[in-house]
Every structure is written in C-alpha cells, then in structure tokens.
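Good morning,

Attaching, inline, the backbone tokens for the sequence recovery test we're adding to the shared suite. The designed sequence is right after.
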C-alpha cells in the first residue's frame, strides 16, 4: 500500500531507548540507514547492535552516535554523522526528551532550564543542524515527538514538561511554513502513555491508574508510535505538514471516568 522507504537516511534523537528505539526499529526494518543518538554510550551501542541485527534481512543498518540535543554543537555532530552514514538525510525524528517531576512551588530555575533545554530547545537545535541536508532530500521530513501532556492535558508536577511539549507544537507550525519551500514537511506525534523505560520509572501505581483511564484499556506500545511516524515519513504523507496526530488509546476523549461507561 505504501511506497517503500528503502535506502532513506534517518536520524532519531533519543533513539537508544523507549519510543525513539521503537521508531528506529521501525525504520530499520524498512531497509533504511538509521542513526540513533543519546548520552548513555553503553545503552546506545547495545541498542544499535540489537536493532542492526534485527534489520539485517531487510538491508537496514543502525549506528549509535553519542550526543546531547541541548547542545547545538553536539546536534551538528550528530547530523554530520547521520549524513555520512546514510549518504544524505531524509528524515529527522526529534524525539529525545526527559520528564522529571517538579511541583511548581519547589521547581528551581535549573530544573526548568533543563527540561526546556532538552525537550524544546533540543528540537530547534536538531532541526537547525539538519536544514541544509533536509533541503537536498526529495523526501524531507521532520517528525517531532510531542505529547498529550501540555497541548491537551495537564498533570501535577509536570508544568515545565507540559510547557515544553506545547512549545514543540508552536515550533511545528512555523517551521512547517519555513521548510515548505524546500518541500520538507514538519509534523508531530502526540503520544499518550506509552510503556518505555522512562515511563516505567514512574512506578506501578502510576501505570495501573493510567491504564484504568484509557478507553482502549491498555498503555500504548512503542510500535503504536513508530507506525504513526513511519506513515508521516512515507511518500503518501507528502501533502501533510504542520499537523499533529494523537496516539493515546482514546485517553483524551472522555469528559470524566463516568463518560467511559
Ligand atoms: P525514555 O525511555 O527515557 O528515552 C528517552 C531517550 O531520549 C533516550 O534515548 C535518552 O538517552 C534520550 N535523551 C534524553 N535526554 C537527552 C539529551 N539531553 N540528549 C540526547 N538524548 C537524550 O523516554 P520515552 O518515554 O521513550 O520518551 C521519548 C519521547 O517521547 C520524549 O520526548 C517524551 O517527552 C515523549 N513522550 C513519551 C511518553 C511516554 O508515555 N513514554 C508520552 C508522551 C510523550 P540518554 O538518556 O542516553 O541520553
């Protein structure tokens, strides 16, 4: 049904764990060259080896490049490595993100700055570094991992995180306009609660409560997000830009628990 992505060059920031690793696995299975980045060298090398062997049959290949998206120089290095590995760059997935809880009354300027630097500024830095290469691609795509938290919902302790995720959507709209002249599309996925290493850290109680509030009665999987990202990267999605796609099992639909029936 969809045109194959074989041979495309893809960068997934934060592709060493969780949702990003799922996105990278999806692209690698499609026979693309994928660079995954993150700060933890051991986890990154392990993920690249695992994803490469899983994708070998389809011709996909995966390389880990160490980098911090909160540092513009580091983003330039990651992008250069992706261009070198894939012979150009077609898809940039701005996925790296952190979600440490901090109630507003106690939040320090350093805590606020860290979340904005990684989640929001990191999106800018990665895309800015990739602009020249994306402009030369015939299939240029930027796909941002935002969240339902911030743009649609709120959560006590995550005001800084929610602001960073809503900020990413503001970025998407204007960036979509600026990149349209190069035929590069810019879109965002908005996951609900997806089972990842990061979410697991929030504890069993959190996970069970969340599950109960989701109409489809399960937390999302990393494959649920990867499938949406692969669609947005496809040739068939070439006319979609500046848009968002909620993937949350219906979590943001009910007005109250009673509404779920
Ligand atoms: P995760 O399992 O903790 O993975 C986060 C990834 O980002 C890791 O690869 C991590 O690698 C990388 N990362 C973190 N800080 C970085 C930095 N400064 N520079 C480069 N890489 C960095 O988290 P996740 O749950 O998959 O979340 C991924 C994205 O999805 C985030 O943007 C998050 O906001 C969004 N999201 C998640 C959920 C969910 O339910 N899980 C829901 C909505 C949105 P290192 O630690 O090695 O740097």
């Amino acid at each position: 049904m969809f045109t194959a992505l074989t041979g495309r060059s893809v960068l997934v920031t934060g592709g060493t764990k969780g949702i990003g690793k799922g996105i990278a696995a999806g692209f690698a299975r499609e026979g693309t060259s994928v660079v995954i980045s993150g700060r933890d060298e051991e986890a990154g090398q392990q993920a690249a080896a695992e994803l490469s062997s899983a994708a070998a049959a389809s011709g996909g290949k995966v390389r880990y490049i160490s980098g911090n998206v909160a540092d513009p120089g580091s983003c330039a290095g990651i992008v250069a490595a992706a261009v070198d590995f894939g012979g150009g760059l077609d898809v940039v997935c701005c996925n790296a993100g952190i979600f440490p809880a901090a109630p507003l009354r106690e939040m320090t300027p350093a805590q606020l700055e860290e979340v904005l630097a990684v989640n929001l500024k990191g999106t800018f830095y990665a895309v800015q570094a990739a602009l020249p290469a994306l402009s030369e691609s015939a299939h240029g795509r930027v796909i941002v991992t935002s969240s339902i938290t911030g743009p649609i919902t709120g959560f006590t302790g995550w005001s800084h995180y929610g602001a960073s995720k809503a900020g990413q959507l503001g970025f998407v709209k204007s960036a979509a306009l600026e990149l349209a002249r190069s035929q590069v599309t810019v879109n965002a996925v908005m996951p609900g609660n997806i089972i990842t290493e990061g979410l697991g850290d929030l504890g069993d109680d959190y996970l069970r409560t969340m599950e109960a509030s989701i109409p489809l009665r399960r937390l999302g999987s990393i494959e649920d997000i990867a499938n949406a990202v692969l669609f947005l990267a496809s040739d068939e999605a070439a006319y979609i830009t500046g848009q968002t796609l909620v993937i949350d099992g219906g979590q943001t639909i009910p007005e109250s628990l009673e509404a779920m029936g």
